[in-house]
Amino acid sequence: MAERTRVRLTQFTQKAGCASKFTPAYLEQVISGLAPTDSDGFASGMESHDDAGYIAFGGGLLLQSVDFFTPIVDDPYRFGQVAAANALSDIYAMGGEPLTALNLVAFPCELDPEVLREILAGGASKLEEAGARLLGGHSVQDDVPKYGVAITGFVEAERIVRNRGARPGDRLVLTKPLGLGILVTALKRELVTEDEIEPAVEAATRLNRGARDAMRAVGPSAATDVTGYGLLGHAGEMLLGAGLGATFSLSAVPVWEGAADLAAGGCYAAGLAANREHREADVVADGVAEHALLPLYDPQTSGGLLIAVVPDRVDRLVGELESRGETAAVVGLVTAEPTLRVKA
Known about the structure:
By secondary structure, the protein is α+β, with helices and mostly antiparallel strands. Helix content is 33%, strand content 23%.
């Protein structure tokens, strides 16, 4: 393979990856009052914050989702891989199988076209790995590079996994460590090297297909993927709207090496601060320093799945995940109190 063009893609943007999403508060203002499209056989996911919308089709459910964002790494090929894996994750989080894909591209034409070719090649490698057929896409000129994918998937009606359905006493299992957003911010500030954050970036390129297979083998109560709103933000979407809450054990939550110390020293993106501002009224720190909570608010890009499962299935779920090479951390349990409590 020819040497890839060296361009620092992250220098084109102030907000990297899923940290470039609208803040939760701003998004709520935008969509509040819009007519919901849910009806028999249809669901938009707007009310329950599901990871994909669906429509009854062919004896099952057709899933649709879209994700695109600004560069999270400098290497174009890796950026494409992460962006595609992130888009595919919404389908996996709902127990589905990706079928087709459409590329979404915004790119400055002043840059070498080979850079964009590398981004698309990286994305294509993950779509091929997932078995999703690329049908085409759409591109526009923009000063800030952006790439993502619209995904259509399928799931049998009886196998769909939604982010509502958890019950008090369910255990919460997380499948990837937190802190990628903090590490990427540190990279932009030249506080860490690419080699130092490579394990976290590599994990972001890994499909959540194995986690999907593991949870389907066990039968979860609910699940979602942890992305732009952080662990506490997505846990809130899963639980608080249903009148439930959770107690998290901070010591059980996996965090990438160095991320917690960097955050405690003030190295984190504006997206983390926005997530904290939006969710902190629902969070109770039980004997935990405020700075220790920062990784739990950190925006993740192509993060892991957060799976709720009944207590007598949690050991089997952990075993199924680990047998597929996935991280499996039992990070908390669902409670009847609509509060997100974090204890040491």
